[in-house]
Amino acid sequence: MVTGGPSGHQPLKHTVNVAPGSTVTFDLTADAPGDWAFHCHMLMHMHAGMFNVVTVRPLDGDAA
């Protein structure tokens, strides 16, 4: 959930704007095993390195 709004009425978001030089903190529930893209939506930024793959493993510890 994105913080900053009234408690209990915050939308789930997949995209969050982050101003230059600032940071954002978020909670993540990793309940869907597999490889997931974690990236900036600006192609120029992705080519400059703002793209990573987050791998979520099943609870039993087996590779996804």
From TrEMBL:
SUPFAM superfamilies: Cupredoxins. InterPro entries: Cu-oxidase_C (IPR011706), Cu_oxidase_CS (IPR033138), Cu_oxidase_Cu_BS (IPR002355), Cupredoxin (IPR008972). Keywords: Metal-binding. Residues 10-58 form the Plastocyanin-like domain. The keyword Signal does not apply. Gene3D superfamilies: Cupredoxins - blue copper proteins. One of its GO terms (molecular function) is oxidoreductase activity. This is Multicopper oxidase. It comes from Brevundimonas abyssalis TAR-001.
